[in-house]
Amino acid sequence: MPVRVYYEDTDASGIVYHANYLRFIERARTDVLRCAGLDHRRMMDAEDSTAFAVRQMDIRFHAPARLDDALEVRTRFTELRGARIRAAQSVWRGETLLFEAQVEVAVLDGAGRARRIPAFVRDALAAYVG
């Protein structure tokens, strides 16, 4: 997913503020779900509702992104098991790795309790696992 760094993304020195990398990767995960045919709103509004919540993150900063940089966020799912989904995400500027994260997401029902990954979610994400 392409991302452009805007003034609002940076700190006073023109470098991307560290928390904004989390925004970049959240949007990328959402876009991958959308590309896979999964609609958050429809899933939450369904009678058998399904939602996702970040449970854990392991993040590494390698190099800074700067104002007006053109970035690419790469997302791949590494595990679909039980009530959790794991993703490996990274932010690149050309061939330079800037940021990487291992993200664990809990799958929840409408009451906020953990639930097994529904078959339709597992099937939709199968092409993005690797």
UniProtKB/TrEMBL annotation:
Chain segments annotated as transmembrane: none
Q: Which GO terms describe its molecular function?
A: fatty acyl-CoA hydrolase activity
Asked whether the keyword Nucleotide-binding is assigned, the reply is: no
UniProt keyword annotation of Hydrolase present? yes
Out of the domains of life, which is the source? Bacteria
Q: Which UniProt keywords apply?
A: Hydrolase
The record places domain Thioesterase at 14-97
**Family (UniProt):** Belongs to the 4-hydroxybenzoyl-CoA thioesterase family.
Q: Any idea what this protein is called?
A: Tol-pal system-associated acyl-CoA thioesterase
- State the species of origin: Pyruvatibacter mobilis
- The gene coding this protein: ybgC
